[in-house]
Design brief:
27 helices; about 525 residues; two-stranded antiparallel ribbon; mainly alpha
Length: about 525
Amino acid sequence: MSFFCRRMSFNFCKRFVEIAVLDPIEPVASDVVLRSSYLLFQTRSEFIASMPGYLRRRMAHRSPSLLLSFLPIIFLVGLLVVNLIVFGDGGLDGPNQLALLFGGAVALLIGLRNGQTFSDLLDHILRSIHTALGAIVILLLIGALAGTWLISGVVPAMITHGLQLLSPKVFLFASCLVCAVVSLATGSSWSTAATVGIALMGIGRAMGFHEGLVAGAVISGAYFGDKLSPLSDTTNLAPAVAGTDLFSHIRYMLNTTVPTMGITLVVFAGIGMFTDNSNTMVDTATFEAAIASQFNIGWYLYLVPLAVVIMIWRKMPALPALFIGALLGGVFAVLFQPQLIDTLAGPGHSFALRSYKVVLSAMGSGGAVVTGNATMDELLTAGGMFGMLKTIWLILCAMIFGGAMEGAGLLQRITAALISRVKSDGSLIATTAASCIFVNATASDQYLSIVLPGRMFAPVFAEHDLDPKVLSRTLEDSGTVTSALVPWNTCGAYMGSVLGVATMTYLPFCFFNLLSPVMTVVQGAIGFRIARLKKKS
């Protein structure tokens, strides 16, 4: 009888609830209808669960308070600080991943408190993880590629010739410039870091440079090319979201990108000119002899990275290009490094089976080549696919946190609060830049840092009569380049893993990435070349 009465009451109130939820003309009356309807049920969740699906979805999207929206972030930052104090550099061995999960749990609780269902929140998390699957597979292939390029002699050849051709005085300048050119040609900062970046890291260590400084030069150059190349995915994504065309976007970005890169190159050139590495630099001849004791070095080894660069330049997707590059590395190892194959495989079996064993081991679990030189032995190591698992763990946990934040509506609430404080064109550009950095740090994904602020700020830019290319440039200047500066962002985790340098170690030296959002905010504040919509006559 009780159930029958409650069902009758629900049917009687259904139309009023529809008006309250779907067309809240009078907020006070709507609230009264909803609150009185809740009294017919034991709990609010029971009330919502009994409603039709379309009403449940609308009820679930109640906006959280600004304070609650910041709570998971405050909780996460607090845990990360504690992890830094307690675990030091060991934070990435698990504590930071768990901190992201705990922060995501707080976001889920807030979403549930605001009436959202766990299944809806879980869907957002799964979609968030799905966006990172491509990056995860690329990471695995990069691990395999690094392993085969080591045993094939590709990386040792780059180190040997780099030591012969590059002077310590120009090394940082040249490293940044080379990475910029390669990334501009390929459209990929990730591929640039995984190929020439790895070799430059080895050369820089041999010359006695701080590893964070070398990584900063590599990443600065890689993101310059990634940001301007028409082959880059982010360079195409930003104008698509903002509503402008690709080449207008690229031309307009030159106003901020060229000065920023100029400053970056001057800084690296100055550091190289005034840095004395004589006490830490390894003897080049000793280094070359150590490499020659295990590898056959020749120009033909460069055919492997050249093939990868050409495939990417020809717009082949990254996954097959990297996979082919890893296989080519294995083939070249068998063809040109047979003595190394015998050394690593040990006795027994035929040469074909020994080659199979060494190549698959290099791709899967990596390996190390022993030369007798301690410094060289440290450089000639690779983790293979297995070495990427810790980074993949971090990315998965970060995407869970980001998905929970987005699903609970917390990111949208914080961004909306920022929009409400926009007064001028300069403050609009600065707020957009801050939102991109914020999404990079919370959603942990470079693409979301472009898409979410882009969608939310596009109408506001139109209201201010600003050309869409102003928005697209701001998204790139702040979203694309700062992703590598967040340890738990997919890009930050990738760069740290591939280059073998902790994100917080290289962060202070990524001058291009640090200066790009500053440049776009400064130009917006002074009104320098701010493009406006052409008014129709």
